[in-house]
Amino acid sequence: MATMAECRSALDRLSDNLAGADGGVRRAAGLDRSLSCHIKDLDITFTGRLSGGRIQVLDTLEGPPRDKAEIRLAMTGDDLVAMVNGDLNFAKAWAAGRVRLEAGFRDLLKLKSLL
Fold first, then answer.
1. Model confidence over 32-52: pLDDT tens digits?
2. Is there a smaller number of Cβ atoms within 10 Å at the N or the C end of the chain?
């Protein structure tokens, strides 16, 4: 099972990957939205913002998200680490119910290029 530090590191690597992307991925990552990522097996939530093509983690909370972020993710720590490492395809994990992504319809359309 991935640790909290490994999950935080994976989010930092994901942020770096988004910042270095180009084309449609860069445009999708250019949203300015509140973000939460609930790590179900650790029962912690990272909260922050997707802004300027980067994920900025602002806080780590115990339990599920307290506030409804504009973009909400939920998954296990192992799945987060595997996706960032390229060992797990986001779209397949999402279709299988291993990853939950919730956002407004327009944001989902923009985020589809990240999938």
1. 999 999 999 999 999 999 988
2. N
Task: Tell me the one-letter amino acid at 107.
Answer: D
- Phi, psi at 64, each rounded to 5°: -70, 165
Who contacts 8 (Cβ-Cβ below 8 Å, separation ≥6)? 46, 57, 60
Q: Check if the beta carbon of residue 47 is closer than 8 Å to that of residue 39.
A: no
Nearest to 79 by CA among 93, 96, 92: 93
Indicate the SS3 state at residue 74: strand
Is pLDDT at 3 greater than 80 in this prediction? yes
Residue 8 corresponds to which amino acid? R
Bin 12: left if φ > 0, else alpha if -120 < ψ < 50, else beta.
Answer: alpha
> Which of 108, 112, 100 is CA-nearest to residue 75?
100
Helix (H) or strand (E) holding 48: strand 44-51
